[in-house]
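Exercise 3.2. Students should predict the tertiary structure of the chain below and write it as C-alpha cells, then compare their answer with the key that follows.

Predict this chain's 3D structure.
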Amino acid sequence: MTATDTNPPPEASKIRKERSPSFPFIGLSKALERVRAVYAHAKRHEARLADLAAAWGMGVKSSGTIQTVAALVAYGLLEDQGSGETRKFKVTELALKALEDQRPGAREAAQAEAALKPKLIAEYVEKWKEGRPADGICISELRFERGFTEDGAKAFLKVFDDTAGFTKAAESDKKPDQATQSDGQKAGESGDKLGDKPDLPKAGHNPPPHKHSVKQPERRILMEGERELTTGMLAKDASFRLIVSGKIGVKEIERLIKKLEIDKEILAEQDAEPEDEDAGYQQWKQGQ
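Answer key:
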C-alpha cells in the first residue's frame, strides 16, 4: 500500500471536516413539544438522560437524543448539572411559563424569550426584522459570511423560520390599544378640565399642519404550532404573509401552488366583463 492510499490529500481531509456554526437541532415548536413530554414524565424533578430518551421514545445513545437535549438547553427549556453518567436535567421555570402560563401575553413572552436564547437566531431575528430575504440570498450569506455548508444553511433557515415566528407573536401582544393615545388618553377624550378654555391661535400665527399618523398593518398572532414561512411584496400597496403549521415539504408546496393556480382562475373569471343582459335580450328579440 502506498502513502497515497493511507494519507488522503489535505483538500479532501478539509472538506470532510467542514462544519457549520452551532445552532439548535430543532425549531422552538418541536422543542416545546419535547419539553412538554419531559414535564409530563418528570414534572420539575431531576431526570437522567435515559429518562429523557424514554419520554421521547428514543435510544439513550442516539444522536437524535443528544441533539434534542442540546437544543432544549440552548433554548433555556432545560437546565443541566454534572457531567457524564451523573449528568441530570430539569425543566426550567421559563419552560413552565412557555407551556402553561395563562396570564394574558405571559406565555407568548416566555416563548419569545426562549426563541432569542440561541445567539445566532437572536442575531438574525434582529438583522431580518423587516423581513427575511429569499432563500438563495440567505443561504449565500450564511455560506460566505458565516462559514455554513449549504446543507447547514438550509437547516438553519428551517429552524430560524419556525423559531422567529414566536418573537413576532410577542411583538403583536405588546402593541398598545388603538383606542388609547400615546399620552395615555383614550381617543376622543380631552385633557381640558371642566371650565378651562381651549387655547386659541394668536392673531397672525398659523398653527403647524396636522400630521396624519400612518396606520401600521396589523399582524395576526400566531397560534401554538404555527409559524411564518415567508413574507413578501406583491405590489406597492399589497403584501403577503404565509402562515403554516406542521411539516412543510416539496409535496405541500406543490399542493399550495396548485391551490393558488385555482384561485387565480377564479379571480380571472370574476374580473371578466359580464355580458349586458338587457343588450342580449334586445339582440334575441331582433332575431325573432
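Discussion points: Residues 1-6, 177-183, 186-195, 210-217 have pLDDT under 50 and may be disordered. The beta strands are 47-48, 78-81, 88-91, 226-235, 238-245.
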